[in-house]
Amino acid sequence: MENLDRNIDLKIKEISQKIKELRLSRGYTSYETFAFENELNRVQYWRIESGQNITLKTLIKVLEIHQISLGEFFKDL
Fold first, then answer.
1. What is the full DSSP assignment across the chain?
2. How many angstroms separate the CA atoms of 36 and 61, rounded?
3. What mean pLDDT is reported for the chain?
4. CA-CA distance, 30 to 49, in Å (whole number)?
5. Distance between CA 52 and CA 44 in Å, rounded?
6. Distance (Å, rounded) from C-alpha 48 to C-alpha 38?
7. Are the C-beta atoms of 73 and 25 separated by less than 8 Å?
8. Residue 31: other Cβ atoms inside 10 A
9. Measured between alpha carbons, how far is 10 from 4 in angstroms, rounded to an integer?
């Protein structure tokens, strides 16, 4: 069970890193500016990029901002 939890934590980190890369690729060097301009809670968005567990609803919202589908997002993970 410990290995499973560790693998899940690693996947969550990969997801959060990919979300951060999407933000950076759009020219936002600050997560705060990105959150503000896209009407996201600044603290919640920080949690997303720091690898804390997020809801599917939040993930879908962030991906819609980036105009990317779930399939596209997860294809390389």
1. -HHHHHHHHHHHHHHHHHHHHHHHHTT---HHHHHHHTT--HHHHHHHHTT----HHHHHHHHHHTT--HHHHHTT-
2. 14
3. 94
4. 11
5. 9
6. 14
7. no
8. 19
9. 10
- Structure tokens given for 31: 């997560």
pTM, 2 dp: 0.90
Residue among 29, 55, 51, 33 at smallest CA distance from 42: 33
Please tell me the distance from the alpha carbon of residue 76 to that of residue 59, in angstroms, as a whole number: 16
Place of tokens 């600050």: 30
Average confidence (pLDDT) over 1-11: 90
pLDDT of residue 40: 94
User: For the chain, what's the residue count?
Assistant: 77
Q: Which residue has the tokens 């809801």?
A: 55
